Sequence to fold (798 residues):
Amino acid sequence: MAFPHLQQPSFLLASLKADSINKPFAQQCQDLVKVIEDFPAKELHTIFPWLVESIFGSLDGVLIGWNLRCLQGRVNPVEYSIVMEFLDPGGPMMKLVYKLQAEDYKFDFPVSYLPGPVKASIQECILPDSPLYHNKVQFTPTGGLGLNLALNPFEYYIFFFALSLITQKPLPVSLHVRTSDCAYFILVDRYLSWFLPTEGSVPPPLSSSPGGTSPSPPPRTPAMPFASYGLHHTSLLKRHISHQTSVNADPASHEIWRSETLLQVFVEMWLHHYSLEMYQKMQSPHAKESFTPTEEHVLVVRLLLKHLHAFANSLKPEQASPSAHSHATSPLEEFKRAAVPRFVQQKLYLFLQHCFGHWPLDASFRAVLEMWLSYLQPWRYAPDKQAPGSDSQPRCVSEKWAPFVQENLLMYTKLFVGFLNRALRTDLVSPKHALMVFRVAKVFAQPNLAEMIQKGEQLFLEPELVISHRQHRLFTAPTFTGSFLSPWPPAVTDASFKVKNHVYSLEGQDCKYTPMFGPEARTLVLRLAQLITQAKHTAKSISDQCAESPAGHSFLSWLGFSSMDTNGSYPANDLDEMGQDSVRKTDEYLEKALEYLRQIFRLSEAQLRQFTLALGTTQDENGKKQLPDCIVGEDGLILTPLGRYQIINGLRRFEIEYQGDPELQPIRSYEIASLVRTLFRLSSAINRRFAGQMAALCSRDDFLGSFCRYHLTEPGLASRHLLSPVVRRQVAGHTRGPRLSLRFLGSYRTLVSLLLAFLVASLFCVGPLPCTLLLTLGYVLYASAMTLLTERGKLHQP
Fold:
């Protein structure tokens, strides 16, 4: 009778695999719900790994599973509702997890798919500091290449759920998927709300038997000894359960491990991609990035930080005080108090450091910026938060947040300096970049926040006092190991020790700290203020330039009738696409950012006025930009020391013009690419075939020779701007003979002009052939007149 019993699970798995191919998605989910309800755990555990992989995709990214990152309710409402119901924290899938959890099944998870620092540590037989990996590593007889983690069903499910954000390929830009609307993002939000509750306790797991509960995972003995760094405490939960009977135990103590596991897995999979040693190596310009986060990844991490702040701030005032540590404190309250400093802070700091140093200098950095600002403002997620103040009067940061600011000092100061260095390399005329500077300045300008940061820096920079050996060891060699439910270290009342402990634990004992309110950072702020002032003037000049344009300019430019000047006064940015409204927004953002910086660093009005006056000297009476100060030498323009200063500080610049072969210019937006290439090949063939005849015609001294020279030769160097000596020699050495150019026929402007001419002619009953003859005659007359004027001008040249 045992033989059929052993065959049934494999038959069930084969049947479900066949259904996943042949049946519609809704029917598949209905069958899965029925299977989870009807079958016992010993038969369900064989389908569990396949089901998890079919939902979240394979770890190597080949299989995409249900593609939760692209599934949206407004696009696929039926599939979306089915998936959300099936994967809900109280749904059928989680019921399957708890069903297997009650039977203590284990599932192998390959170490090779873990984040880089964790994988390297385990492969070197060093136990990672996170308790998530303790008692779970299994070694194969072949050695260290086939390492696996033995995970319980809940851990296995959450591992796959978290890693699907990392292992799956980035979403194509063409999809235009809004991350906050996709099923994955909303599931993360639901799981965090369920397992990190702000009110009450974690809901008990669903159980198939009345009154049954799934026990916490028992400790396992590692199959090989580890040389572990740091101290490793047993979980307070396990200690709590092992010392209490099940009758008197707090129910939350039995279930807090699920919240613990969820948080640890999310932090490890999403943030622990950089260790302190790896971060220090990454400072080298030749270092190769081991992991590159995406914008979607950053948005999900921001959601995690918001929930963590709300979770930690849901402690009642009497519970949040350090004196509240007592035996009466529940495990959930311990968890709330310790989650952020013990798990998130170090890994988030390294993650942000990497993003600030390696993220592209484009508008996508806004996601990283908002994640950082969300972490810096826990008061926004407190239940007793004040009503938001107006823009003119932002709300004051309460003094009760001073310990958080001091214990996260580097998050405020070093990352702010890193942002200054980024901002100095961006185009602040762009409204998106101007908005980022405004957002950071607005957050740091909140009343009382700058004073708190300055007080924290003073505590760190004050000289160390003579302290006992025991205290010194406690605060200069901190450990982030063990569960947050581990025995809590004794509270230290000296705030200076806390700040020093924070800085040294994140940066090392030999770190070089740059004060946010020191002279180096103040110099960067002044440079940024100067850049903001310059960007405001540039935006105003663009606005004035747009206002001077005729009303029909935009329509004509769309047709290609705008000026063909390829050397515009200002570099391209998103102002060109967004128009006057964006110029106004840019000016508004920069104006407010400058005011906020003045408040934070107590800049005087005189200092800011100097920047405005310095920019004012770069414009002439008509408001047009002048060239840098220079003198004319034998080989061209030579910069004076004043001119070098003007260029280095961005006060003046040379107009950049194309000086190469006009036929080889890049194809413009007002040209048809394929037609331009075809005309170039045609004209090149004609020039090769008739080069001698064209040269003979252009060498004649009569009117025919002048007419040919007007059409077949380029203007001489005398009609161009002075070039640098190198370019002058290159141009002189590459003198081009007469040649025919047909490129003008590849322009939308020319083609639309001809089309309009034929349409107008048809209105007067003039056919295509007579119209063509009239156009040709008109052009011959125009070209003859221009030829005479050109020759007369040459006669009067000295």
Q: What stands out?
A: Residues 398-465+494-547+581-618 form one domain. The first strand starts at residue 107 and ends at 110. Residues 46 and 752 are 70 Å apart (CA to CA).
